[in-house]
Amino acid sequence: MRLIRFAAENHKGLRDRAELDLTEPGLTTLRPKDGKTWDDSLHRVIGIFGANASGKSTVLDALQYMVSAVRNSATAWQAERRMVRSPFALDEKHRAAPSSYELEFILEDVRYEYGFRVGAAGIEEEWLRYVPRARWTNLFTRNHGRPGFFWGSEVKALGEVTGRELVLSRAVLTGHARLSGVGRAIAEDVGFAPLGDVHRGSRVSVIMDMLAKGAMTYDSVTTLLKVADIGINSVSIKETELPQREQELMKRINELLRGDSSRRKGRSVGEAEKVDEDTAATIMRSLEFSHCDGAGRPLRLYEESAGTISWLALAVPAIEALRTGTVLCVDEIDASLHSQLVDILVGMFEDRELNTKGAQMLFTSHDTYLLSNLTEHPLEPDQVWFTEKNVEGATELFSLDDFPRHRDANIARRYLAGRYGAVPRTAPSLLHRVFEESVSGRTEH
User: Domain ATPase AAA-type core, which positions (predicted)?
Assistant: First the structure.
């Protein structure tokens, strides 16, 4: 999948419609012309910059919500008491209004547009159309104001769809001949790599599973670490078998979760259970790193720096995206990473010899290094987007391409000077008031 455009309205801080465009300036028609391909017509990297709490992450969160709705609205979301949604919360009007999401993308060299509107009661509108030749053709439409659905001539009716699930989500669940492939592409080809401590740990666990199953080689992981000049010359997995008593306890817990109570088997709950001989031993896995000096024991993951873990947790999904031609969304790409490592990641996606399948990366960042003349992989103005909150607390999304271009301009300097907006409105003078109040409070006591 390759993204063309994403838009959202009334999602958290995005009160008004916000649209992220990934097209090159030369694409003005429904399909590339003059011998060009989609590879020539779509950006592979988009960066979103802005102050803290300006809504950078919200743009990616809106896209993640859309992906999650296709994945889960026909399954896990059905168990929720209310429709899962996150409207703008700072005024009553928008809390009660529906939210909308739209995605244009390329799948198997065909252009699609998919969108839906969701309100408190459920799905109010949904549609999917594509461009088989020279014009848009509807595959299905759904409107809460009219009964039933409109199915295109090549789409077999899906059957019953509840008011709180998406057609595409139901199509994936039932394996619909025409629609399930589109739904799976949205659900599976857009990945997210948040870099908080909890998320880093889960991503490293995935890497360990990939190594254990042979889906990724130790040499590949070691090479990625050497690229970052972290001082690690090899990586390995240490496997430790849990003691027998812990294995018995885990088996007992699993039986209880399955409803396989020992009471029904005529045994007391407290009776120790023997582990079946054909039951595989429970294994604890942990990554170990050997450093270049060769001295001392290998270090465990928790002993490594946050930068090492962040690089590993991000570089591996980046490689997977390049291998599969999918989309990787990274929130706060500069968290615990040196600017030059972020530059390397951008270069991986921009390099057409590495990125042969048109993989794309969307990221948020505070790092003005990527906007400066120092970067080896400068972004074009239409690859740079900003977020800024207005006086009503709503996030506005806009592009550097909206501003006049200045030849040889130092974009980073102009950005920090506030020429494009999207910078903090700081008030350092207020620190004096905090200090004075603190001193006054201690004096009174």
Answer: 46-140, 227-372
